[in-house]
Sequence to fold (206 residues):
Amino acid sequence: MFPLDSRRRCARYSTLTLAGDQGGLRLAARGRAGPVGPAPAGSLPGRRSDGARARKGNSPREIRQAHGMDADGAFCHTGVNCEPWCGHQEGNGFTVAGNMLVGPQVIQAMAEAFEAGRSGGRELSECLLLALEAGQAAGGDKRGKQWATLLVASSDPRGYHNLRVDDHADLVAELRRVYDHVVQHSLRIEREYGPEGLRLFSRVKY
Fold:
């Protein structure tokens, strides 16, 4: 997902992945409204060609998926030869897509959970996690699951913006446990050291 920073006219992004390989679900959000509703597999918004540019070098296109957001809007493409079930949905400021899923209910559940979290004033990272939980509850990847990640790129990063769980019996539940733990740890740091201390603690380290 690629949220729009209206002050800088640049695209930020957040990504969540439900399972590995082509079955991954990626949910992107941006900060302003866009058209709502599902799009059929194999379609691209006729008003723009960003999807084609995003797939440059990834031929043939009909076995590929591409979707995302930028400062101008959204693009979605699901090739007609992607592994079923496959498809995508563009919502109010986000896109969600996947293939090798148990069915369209996975995409729909993720979209509804993301929108519910956002309308409830949840932070973007938790909206993404709520969507991940809903997608898994709806059946997720038909092959099962191997790892789960949550990634939010932000000018004000937090420790819970970049989390990953591998080889766990209940990956999504474990990701939620880790997320809640890091959120509480971040709040404690802010109480003890203030906003500047939290900023220094949370900054990206190489």
About this structure: The chain has four helices and eleven strands.
